[in-house]
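Fig. S4 source data, part A: sequence.
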Amino acid sequence: MRLLVPIAMIFLFIGCGKKDSPKSPEQASLVFPERNSECTTGQSLSETTSRVEFLWQPSDHTESYELRVTNLNTGTTQTAFVETPSASVTIAKGVPYSWVVVSKNSGSPNTAISEEWRFYNAGSQTNYAPFPAEIVEPQMAANVFKDVNNEVTLSWVGADVDNDISSYEVYFSTETPPETLIASPAAGDMEVTVSVSSNGIYYWQVVTKDEAGNSSDSGIFDFKVF
């Protein structure tokens, strides 16, 4: 009996000291500015800038958020750190942007990143260039397998505030920048197949054109074939 008492005390101490692992934050759902839209509700600060309030739904197990707003013309990213599901950021007028929200919890090493949405901050123009094509696959620096026909499929997603995309130009090469135009698909066609060789490194980009003569560039992506 004397031996059982200290053993019971040890188990009691261990049980009381055990804590549940902190739960990882979950992904936030974006609300505003809406996806592939023109944002017209910003507070005008000057002829070139306005202040826009970004909104998202609160995410579970989250203590704070990091808002990342990226100018798609320059690649420059602005960040805001907040504890509430909203933040105001001063951005340029008439420029396309993308934005994401990172959910954080100080008790967990993990973070959760929302979907990426794109929008145009309203400016003086009445017609906007298309959003740069969003590359679906292969992603940047991906390692891919060719199919039985020694081909790989390139795919992307296009969007335009004015909904007047007319066509795409796909450039593909073993050199960068890729200068060989391999396809000019119509607005509804957002994939092409290309011939590749094992151990080859390839570069590609998509130029989106609209009916008003505007265009945008996806940037250059590369991948390696096994």
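Fig. S4 source data, part B ends here. The chain has two domains: 29-121, 134-225.
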